[in-house]
Amino acid sequence: MLKPEHLLLNLKSVGSPQISGDGQLIVYTLGYTDPATRTNRSDLWMMNSDGSNNRQLTWNYESVSSPVWSANDRSIAFVAGDGDKHTIRVLEREGGESRPVVSHSNPPMALAWSPDGSRIAYTLKVDPENPSGDARPKGSPAPVRATTRLDYKQDNRGYLNDARHQLHVVNVETGTSTQLSAAYKDHDFPQWAPDGARIAVKVSDANGMHNVLQVFPVHGGDPNEAGWADGVIGVFSWSPDGSQIVFSGYPTNSPQHEFYRYITATHAIEPATEGLDFSPETGFPTISGPAQPAWVDDDKVIINAGFQGMTSLFGLDVTDGVDVQITIWQATHSGLSVDNAHTTIVQTASSPASPGRLVKVDLRTHEVTTLLDPNADLLPQETLATVEQITVERGTEKIDAWVYLPPDLDRTQQHPVILDIHGGPHGNHGFAWNAGAQLLAAAGNIVVAPNPRGSGTYGREFAEKVWGDWGGEDWLDILAVLDSVLERDYADANRCGIYGYSYGGFMTSWAIGHTDRFKAAVVGAPVFNFASFYGTSDIGHIWCDVQWDGSIYDQERLSAILEHSPSTHIRNASTPTLIVHGEADDRCPIGQGEELFVALKKLGVETEFVRYPGGSHMMLRRGPLDHRIDYFTRIVEWFGARL
User: Fold this and answer.
1) Which residues make beta-bridge pairs with 610?
2) pLDDT value, residue 484
3) Share of residues in the chain with pLDDT > 90 (%)
4) Is 608 helix (H, G, I), strand (E, B) or coil?
5) Is 543 helix (H, G, I), strand (E, B) or coil?
6) Helix (H, G, I), strand (E, B) or coil at 178
7) Positions of the chain with pLDDT under 50
8) What pLDDT, in 10s, does the model give residues 329-351?
9) What does the angle CA 112 – CA 116 – CA 121 come to, to the nearest 5 degrees?
10) In whole angstroms, what is the distance from residue 122 CA to residue 187 CA?
């Protein structure tokens, strides 16, 4: 049977695959857990594009990230990390030892070679109060923190004040690095113009809630800007002739992007699409970057996108806005590295049966070839759940869900049923790896993972239907999916559980205040009290106005907003509840879990509160191994003892 310790300790992850321009070689990172120290490590690897001659290129670093080919395919740049020293290094294609270019105390990110191969652009966290990044004298107290800005902290990064990612360019031969940006905003994902004289970056403030594009002259001067004051930017890419940048975004903070053209000569923005029903892969702040569009000629780009819980490649003509679905997969493909001939793409791919593989896509035949599956021996198929996609109709909406059946399902017996509610609310379930669902299914439970209205990858109208209605129609969608599964003879309606994290924690808190049909609940890092969340979350002061259709300081809206807060209805709760929460969570602060815990204890409800020291909202991706093992072990045991 699949166990958290075995799974998480031995799991390996493929990252950042990049194909050389000539299509012959692929570099990538391979992450794993050091069994001696139980810490995360990664190395740089290379293979031929047919998967042969797979070889390790680095051994001596704690971490390796951001590999990227030079334009002439002769060199690979990457970041090597050791403790507090992070170095951009260059390795020649022919092999040998890599050489250092420049080192920093903070890790350089998102490396990008200049077209002539003489320079590398990158971004780096710079604190204007300590620009050199020097450590404080041993034994000195922590500095006093004074701020005047609302976005002074960010989840997974902690207290920031004015420290932000700044754009740098380093000369590869001399190691001389120059900072091009200065504004106290995050500058991310640099891309060189084809002429090598300009660099485009995504510039974010309000903790990523607002973004614009800026184009910096490499040799000095003020940047030009494209975007909207209250809007968002997702993916972007220079045209081959440098006359325009195609980008995704929207003039307001919308979960669904459209595509636009920024004309560099006139600085005009022209819409390219209207009413897209797919979501370009824009990445996840502080965790992963975007899959930038790939130009295949002067008018057309290829886009990697989510579509109804699946992943699809779309071709977009930026001149007339016509988009064509090239292919679709019942899997989640990430990244988009294309060779110069535009015939081959390399990506990572996950599915309900695979945490992550390195795959090659032939754009002529659409054939997908797995080049590396580092977890093939770790996860024999007989240990994994069988996963079915179902669709339930509610009124005019069709609600997708994924049902995980135990590997040893006995259809003559009844099994417990557990709802798994995703985060967001604009996240989504789908054909992707779901460790929690697999572990619960391995313990004999049927796990149901629905995409209620509000979920991403279904277009703007569906996503925005949750605004101002958290716990309304989305909750009824979830119940409709559950009731559909409970029609099966082997599903036990008397042994139902519910769990979720973030927005999923909100919905679980909401559920236990509105029904006693669940025999056990697990609430992860919830939005529990709308009033306190608004002023304590790193994004609450902006994000909540959109999600809840108003501010809690608007007296005309306050009562309506609080009617959707789980704290308003928790007095009705009786379900045994496990609360799991990271103590350094700035997105859904620990106070949300604390308030829920106190409420349930005062009500006499069976409750346990588990706190993970140092854990951010991203602790399930970035937290210590032992904390992640503990999290999943407790969930399986909590339901196992009560269902």
Assistant:
1) 580
2) 98
3) 92
4) strand
5) helix
6) strand
7) none
8) 999 999 999 999 999 999 999 99
9) 25
10) 9
The owner of tokens 């796990």 is: 447
Helix, strand, coil distribution of the chain in percent, nearest 5 = 20, 40, 45
Amino acid at site 389: Q
* Token pair of 124 as six digits: 């780096």
CA distance to 144, 210, 497, 517, per residue, from 1 (Å): 51, 45, 21, 29
Q: Which residues of 56-65 are buried (b: 16+ CB within 10 A; e: fewer)?
A: ebbeebbbbb
Using an 8 Å Cβ cutoff, are 102 and 175 in contact?
Answer: yes
Predicted confidence at residue 465, as pLDDT, reads 96
CA pair distance 345, 19, nearest whole angstrom: 8
- Report the alpha-carbon distance of residue 274 to residue 250 in Å, rounded: 11
Residues 6+ apart with CB under 8 A from 474: 425, 452, 453, 454, 465, 466, 507
Residues 191 and 110: beta-carbon distance below 8 Å:
no
What's the CA gap between 207 and 95, in Å, rounded? 40
**Which residues on adjacent β-strands are paired with residue 244?**
263
Whole-number pLDDT of residue 123: 98
Helices 503-512/473-485 angle, 10° precision: 80
pLDDT of residue 1: 82
Whether the CB-CB separation of 607 and 577 falls below 8 Å is answered with yes
Tell me what pLDDT residue 382 has. 86
Q: Domains plus CATH for the chain?
A: 385-642 (3.40.50.1820)
Distance of CA 109 to the CA centre of its chain: 16
* Cα gap 12→16, rounded to integer Å: 14
